[in-house]
Amino acid sequence: MLPDGTHCIRQRGIRYDFTLMPIYGTAADGTDKVGITDLNNGTYVLEHASPPCSATQVAPCIPGGILPAHVVVSPNGKLFNNDYKNIQPRVGLAYRLTNNNVIRAAYGRFYDNWAAIDQTARNIQAWPTVTYVLAQNLNPAVPSVFAENPFQGFTGPYPPPTPFNQVGWNSNPLFKNPYSDQWNFGIQHLFGSSTVMTLNYVGSHSGNTDIAIMGNSATVPGPGPITAREPYPYITPTFYDNSIGRGSYNAFQFSLNRETSHGLTYLISYTWSKAIDIGSDGWYCAEGCSIENPYDINANKGVAGFDLTHVLTASYVYQLPFGKGNFRTGSRVVNSIIGNWQTNGILTLSSGIPYTINVCGDIANTGNGGCYERPNVVGNPNLSNPSPALWINPAAFASPSPYTFGNMGRNVLRSDWYKDIDLSLFREFPISESKRFEFRFDAFNATNTPTWGTPQSTLNNINFGEITGTRSTERELQLALKFYF
Predict the structure, then answer these.
(1) What is the pLDDT of residue 286?
(2) Is there a contact between 314 and 282 (Cβ–Cβ < 8 Å)?
(3) Under 8 Å CB-to-CB from 122, ≥6 apart: which residues?
(4) How far apart are CA 385 and CA 63, in angstroms?
């Protein structure tokens, strides 16, 4: 609620940020001799030029002394460009309608200038050095790579003739800072003198979020060599991060908050919401990328991996009235024993976590990597009596036909719903105004009710549909004695 005597508060502001993207490595130790694949134009950008291998006899160097085709040197000595458009307006309003009713509204844009900056600094390729070599999708059909030389083109102390045959982690050199537009509108009502009810609508839109793909994979599925279907046939498909993602969040929020009165404090909160994004729930696939077709990003739209439709929490603190007031006995000893007790509790209930069924192998033959494909849905995935031994119906899914994508959506299934109750019992033993002992007993997950984790979700895994862990922890009991002074 607003302070007494205040009827309206308005706030306005604007913030501007820009990030100076750093230079990778130093010239002194040669670690600045790195590059990055730019799929905007099909080039490989060197941060700084390197001498010919004939002069150094060791990497970093340029084989033959001449830059290969489509290899360029950065004109400003940097691999990533700065973003100068991070303007962030903000406005807020709070207005007292009556003595017991207040409305609030706000909007703001927020940029994350340093989103995953540590990982971004690693999203470079080693050529013309030879610090690491990575291979992907070996032997997709006819064996052509053998244990004696799994990294074809690697020539010992010298880099390969071209950087385009290696697989690495790359980011778009024109990567933009992600942002979030956030807004809310709410009403607060005061009941009596100590209880506030809040009703809020909260929304947000995120842009420039990371979409991690296998860059330069074939534009369409099909048989035969993928080079004929690649945008740049001379570039091996490689991991690529691009700031083309977006997401949204909309929620109704309810809370009932009672300040301490007659020894009781409580807070009840409920949120009904939906979070939607496109293909990626976090940066650099750390939290689950599911990009089946990188050339149709909208086809990967679905609820976010962190979406929780319903969340209910209720907590309380209650100073037990025994030993004082109307519950006082005629004995000081008895009052001392039954007095100064307090109990606390927290109840948490929420929807299950979304997850996706994947199929390993490049069935579509596009050069994409890992378990990127999703299966075809041929039945009802839900079981009437699911158990950890079998949570979903395996017969409901089938691998796609060769050279096709599956028709199952992203994050369309959910794990077990979450339930937990924590309880505490406290007893104070006052010694003086500033010193006291406190005895406490805590029970976490007091009912010892398990919340099962996400099942094995890879279709061609032998344990598909089985759950091997929990989201919750088992019941934990603890006793403690503290001395405050």
Answers:
(1) 46
(2) no
(3) 169
(4) 64
